[in-house]
């Protein structure tokens, strides 16, 4: 599944809207403290054992990479000219899918050959980025089969899929999971439509089995309006959420997440102009938000483009090292 659909969706939206824990924790307080620490200090969240310490101020930069056609390693080629820190703090593998097993009537995690190649070659595709102080996440989205993050009908089903995600993150040494509620085509194969409990149950169960890793939400789709249920909310368990419409500034409405964990600015590296990207960075900084989202990094040297934003957010230009 290519994220080129995002560009198509973005174009359609812009045309029409041009004129929007430990799972065995001994007590709840300990669990809450763990999540609070993850959300409260980006530098700590972004500091893996044995890797460089991330010390830059000005928030974090997150970048999606279409691994069907581009190398994830491209994210590690950009550093701040002053200080040498990595421009991108989080690199996201786009994308794994939620498939639907019509025999067992269950959601199944699926990695296409290109995603599988990145994961299987983690020593050369993932670890080098982590050794630079970066985090690597796996994005999860639908695959037109009717299964998605919004139509689990029981906690047991949500828990089973959360275990698939956690097992994958652990086995491949990933730093977390990103959720993107697109292309599920809810209703296909006799599946149910989105419900209010599904995403909250899923992210609750994932946090239990993935207490120290990052959970992020690409703010889009049915899930964006189903963020609370049963006295719990997605913001209780997630670390970050960011705007999904490239070239725009829109604050994700995720209760429980502080400004430092929200990204209202989103750019498509290949289509968002420099002046727009700079303006979004200025708004992000002036309004006190802590995340800037980039999408569609290729092998082309874009350090001049990145420098426009980086000078605003971090007070430094960007150096490209092939």
TrEMBL record:
SUPFAM superfamilies: (Trans)glycosidases. InterPro entries: Endoglyc_H (IPR054861), GH (IPR017853), Glyco_hydro18_cat (IPR001223), Glyco_hydro_18_chit_AS (IPR001579). Coiled coil: none annotated. It comes from the Bacteria. PROSITE patterns: GH18_1, GH18_2, PROKAR_LIPOPROTEIN. Keywords: Glycosidase, Hydrolase, Signal. GO terms for biological process: carbohydrate metabolic process. NCBIfam families: Endoglyc_H. This is Glycosyl hydrolase family 18 (Putative chitinase). The lineage of its organism: Bacteria, Pseudomonadati, Bacteroidota, Chitinophagia, Chitinophagales.
